[in-house]
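User: Run a structure prediction on this.
Assistant: Running it now.
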Amino acid sequence: MTTQTHSPAKPVHGSNGRIPKEEPSLACPLTNSPETMTPQAYGLTKPAYGLNELMSLIPFKRTKIYELIRDGKLRATKCGRRIMFLSPDVAAFLSHLQQEEL
């Protein structure tokens, strides 16, 4: 009786012999166009902003911001009990506003 040894499964490699990495998607939720401005272009230096910080950056009141979230025009992220706005999402919203005004 012969004993067979099994080798562990090998990961699938790319053409260069390395395991391909997934690139993070930087696509904006509202538009995937290349004209979308980066967060730095709008002066957004932090990775995320709280509601009060966002209210100091854009001229909207709390109820209007909640309305924009509900309508899907502004993307928000929950962090525990806090609502946070990621810089790329705020930049996408501002870019969308700028395109609508033109």
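Residues 48 and 86 are 4 Å apart (CA to CA).
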